[in-house]
Amino acid sequence: MITIPSHLDGQTTFEPDALRVMSQAFDEACNALQIFAGDEHGRRVIATRIIDLAGGGVIDAAALRDRVVLEARAAA
Q: How many CB atoms sit inside 10 A of residue 2's CB?
């Protein structure tokens, strides 16, 4: 199953609090978009986008979730 820590490339490091926030945003975004455990590709896409946003300085669960959900719905 895809999780935020399992998707980090080893070169990117985040503090434990940031990982917790990112994981919360990931779970909430996947639930909002109805991307469940069996959809590995969908979960990988969501994880990658959250990691990218967090790497750019967005470390707020609601902001990460809302941004990813908005982008996914706009792309659909």
A: 19
